[in-house]
């Protein structure tokens, strides 16, 4: 087969062009730190990297969700801790106020202290987070969940607890309703001696004791004294039930905070695995890339040298 000068020339130019393209491609990989910058570079790796990127995005979203959940639960735990102390202080006053040797003035003073604790507890039940959202209002976070209407305290917040999905298979409660915390009792609550229903509203419990303490007992008849004692005993049982319920909620909150720590640790491990997988798919191997870059550069120089040498041959100086 007879080779014309133009054919040889074209072959040399294509060789130089191919070598230059390969050399520039490796240079692009080194500068971008990526071996796959376009799907055409490695279609399989590019497709797999899309799947891994989606997993990374999902993991990042769940991590942010856990951060919000942790903040909400921590705020709730803080409010519940304060409420626990308030109820315990009220219990102490109820026991002391039930002492038969106290004077009417002493009982009136205790009633005043209980009123302060009641108002304090109401403030804790209407606690807000740093953004001004009410912690115990369920999904009605913009409105105070507890209202003192003059006849007692009632709950006007949401009926559903706030939930948050914290990973692909776990949804947890991150905001209990005030009715579940302050107007409920646990299943093992102390019952009333006469078999009647136990009081569930902690504010009603305190109001009952406060009213009883304000009734003079110094010259009261036996019936009045018994009514007073029954009211104090009922409040004492009620506060015990209410305290146990608050502690139950606190226990649940603590368990969830611990679970979030575990999920965060697992999420970090998963992120590390995904990052490694993504790196293996699209990141450049410097050692291999530098070696390839040097080889491509040498090949390009050789192609230039060959073309230069051949262009000086007499064959190129003749018209084909």
TrEMBL record:
Localisation per UniProt entry: Bacterial flagellum; Secreted
Coiled-coil ranges from the UniProt annotation: none
SUPFAM superfamilies xrefs: Phase 1 flagellin
Flagellin C-terminal domain residues: 242-315
Record has Secreted as a keyword: yes
Positions of the Flagellin N-terminal domain: 4-141
Domain of life from the UniProt record: Bacteria
Chief localisation class: other
Record's keyword terms, sorted: Bacterial flagellum, Cell projection, Cilium, Flagellum, Secreted
One Pfam match: Flagellin_C
InterPro entries: Flagell_FlgL, Flagellin, Flagellin_C, Flagellin_N
Protein family (similarity comment): Belongs to the bacterial flagellin family.
Cited NCBIfam families: flagell_flgL
Protein name: Flagellar hook-filament junction protein FlgL
Organism ancestry: Bacteria, Pseudomonadati, Pseudomonadota, Gammaproteobacteria, Enterobacterales
Gene designation per UniProt: flgL
């Amino acid at each position: 087969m007879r080779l014309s000068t133009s054919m040889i020339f074209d072959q040399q130019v294509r060789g130089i062009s191919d070598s230059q393209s390969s050399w520039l491609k490796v240079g692009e990989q080194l500068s971008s730190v990526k071996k796959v910058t376009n799907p055409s570079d490695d279609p399989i790796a590019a497709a797999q990297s899309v799947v891994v990127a989606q997993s990374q995005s999902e993991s990042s979203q769940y991590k942010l969700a856990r951060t919000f959940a942790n903040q909400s639960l921590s705020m709730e735990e803080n409010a519940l801790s304060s409420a626990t102390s308030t109820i315990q202080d009220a219990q102490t006053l109820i026991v002391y106020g039930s002492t038969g040797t106290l004077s009417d003035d002493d009982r009136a003073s205790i009633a005043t202290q209980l009123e302060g604790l009641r108002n304090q507890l109401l403030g804790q039940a209407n606690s807000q987070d740093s953004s001004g959202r009410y912690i115990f209002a369920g999904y009605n976070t913009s409105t105070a969940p507890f209202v003192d209407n003059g006849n007692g305290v009632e709950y006007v917040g949401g009926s559903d607890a706030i939930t948050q999905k914290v990973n692909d298979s776990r949804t947890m409660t991150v905001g209990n309703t005030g009715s579940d915390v302050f107007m409920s009792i646990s299943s093992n609550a102390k019952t009333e001696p006469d078999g009647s229903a136990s009081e569930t509203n902690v504010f009603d419990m305190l109001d009952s004791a406060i009213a009883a303490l304000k009734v003079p007992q110094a010259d009261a008849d036996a019936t009045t004294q018994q009514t007073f004692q029954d009211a104090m005993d009922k409040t004492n049982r009620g506060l015990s039930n209410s305290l146990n319920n608050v502690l139950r909620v606190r226990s649940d909150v603590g368990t969830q905070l611990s679970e979030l720590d575990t999920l965060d640790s697992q999420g970090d491990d998963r992120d590390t695995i995904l990052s490694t997988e993504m790196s293996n798919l699209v990141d450049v191997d410097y050692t291999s890339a530098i070696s390839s870059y040097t080889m491509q550069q040498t090949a390009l120089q050789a192609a230039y040298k060959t073309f230069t040498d051949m262009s000086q041959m007499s064959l190129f100086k003749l018209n084909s």
